[in-house]
Design a protein that fits this description.
This protein is α+β, with helices and mostly antiparallel strands. 20% of the residues lie in helices and 31% in strands.
């Protein structure tokens, strides 16, 4: 007996799938956004020396992400103020010894950094070896990176110009181990075709299917492949150029957007040869938002500082320069996570934190959870309020692995001005708050 679908069935088939896809996209976005715990803010935008000094990023507005940024003057108007501000923010200063991107223990302070277009070589030179080391540490310790055009060039191991010559191998940041090859295409636009099953399609329903048209392109790049057409190991193609004028530039089918994640503990790097960042609506805006989401999805799981033992007083008082992250002070809006192995027949688990004299003006809180990392929004077992001294008693805890976290409630007061964000208020928190943590069984 043949089956002939009814009009109702056809209607369900036609309309249920898009709705289901929309719900799936919304769920995927929500899952990524919900994981932004333990960071000061979501995105830092670098519009520094020799880069486009953008004052807004529409994709962050679309997603409701928090953002701070640095915007320098134009290349022709570089000043001592530009250089000083950029160095203080990205390289470090007496106020914040390892810069805004990093917490005192080297953990990422922002979920992702976005680096604008402009001149990769000049920006790399302006930051020098210290800036390069800060960016490398940021990504290695879990911060994610999105770069377009110059932001893609500078994150690579080097660039290849249209003559096939290798350039800038020493100053570039080497967050991705491959080479960015120049397209030779300026003041134009291209169509980008998403790879089949591209993770960028998880977060939005692209009306054009896999093709995103009219993406601005000005002197950008693509991922260089070797003679065997292979990309560096671990590189994930996300989209390719769909460009029919191959007589002018042979970029049709080249990888235009790609991702790289070095390890489980590192952040995800996403590089794009074109310019979707300025789009305020439509598919190009969704594309940029998807790049940010996929980057932040690559933030690693919370890192455990150590397992606490009965009667041990763990001192978290080291400074950045001591190079002892498992005992370093806590930064603003940061979580420090610890494990506790609760024995059988335990009647009480008592957790205490206390600050040093210099920590009394800061607010720390405490929470605990069995079986997974503890955050304020996933447990009722917490102690909050003014001051750095807290105690939490858990009656008849089940045996097994418990996790406790210390959270620094105190943060700076950001102000937005001509050059982007500056900080006021309790800025000494940037170098960390020292505290002690201990547990006791009864």
């Amino acid at each position: 007996m043949k089956y002939f679908p009814s009009i109702v069935t056809i209607a369900v088939l036609l309309f249920a799938t898009p709705n289901a896809e929309a719900r799936s996209s919304e769920k995927n976005r929500a899952e990524v956004l919900a994981k932004g715990r333990g960071f000061y803010k979501d995105v830092f935008m670098d519009g520094g020396i020799a880069l486009t000094s953008r004052h807004s990023l529409p994709a962050t507005t679309l997603l409701g992400l928090s953002m701070e940024y640095f915007a320098s003057a134009s290349v022709e108007q570089l000043s001592e103020r530009d250089t000083t501000l950029q160095t203080n923010i990205l390289c470090g200063s007496e106020q914040d010894t390892n810069g805004w991107l990093l917490y005192p223990d080297g953990a990422p302070r922002f979920r992702a950094i976005y680096v604008n277009g402009g001149s990769a070589a000049k920006h790399a030179k302006s930051l020098g070896s210290t800036g390069r080391e800060r960016l490398q540490e940021y990504v290695a310790n879990g911060g994610s990176y999105v770069g377009t055009c110059a932001g893609a060039f500078i994150a690579s191991a080097g660039s290849i110009n249209t003559k096939g010559e290798l350039k800038n191998t020493k100053r570039y940041w080497q967050l991705w181990p491959g080479y960015a090859e120049s397209t030779g295409l300026r003041k134009s636009a291209t169509t980008l075709r998403l790879e089949r099953r591209s993770p960028l399609a998880r977060y939005f329903d692209f009306e054009g299917g896999r093709d995103i048209a009219d993406v601005r392109h000005n002197g950008g790049c693509y991922a260089h492949t070797e003679a065997d057409d292979k990309l560096p190991e671990g590189t994930e193609p996300l989209a390719r150029f769909l460009f029919d004028n191959t007589a002018k530039v042979g970029i049709d089918g080249e990888v235009a957007i790609w991702a790289y994640k070095q390890s489980d503990r590192s952040g995800r790097v996403i590089l794009c040869g074109s310019h979707p960042e300025g789009a305020t609506k439509g598919e190009r805006l969704k594309l940029m938002a998807s790049m940010l989401l996929y980057a932040m999805e690559g933030n690693p799981k919370p890192q455990i500082k150590g397992t606490l033992s009965q009667g041990e007083v763990r001192e978290m008082n080291r400074r950045t320069e001591d190079n002892d992250p498992d005992h370093t002070r806590i930064g603003d809006r940061q979580y420090h996570h610890f494990r506790v192995d609760v024995p059988n027949h335990c009647k009480e688990l008592i957790i205490n934190i206390d600050g040093y004299e210099e920590a009394k003006k800061f607010d720390l809180s405490l929470c605990a959870k069995r079986g997974e990392a503890a955050f304020h929004d996933n447990t009722l077992l917490k102690s909050v309020g003014r001051g750095c001294r807290k105690s939490l008693t858990i009656k008849n805890p089940k045996a097994g692995a418990w996790y406790l976290s210390v959270f620094c409630e105190t943060t700076v007061s950001p102000l937005t001005g001509k050059y982007g964000t500056t900080y006021k208020g309790k800025t000494s928190v940037l170098n960390g708050v020292p505290y002690k943590v201990s547990i006791q069984y009864k």
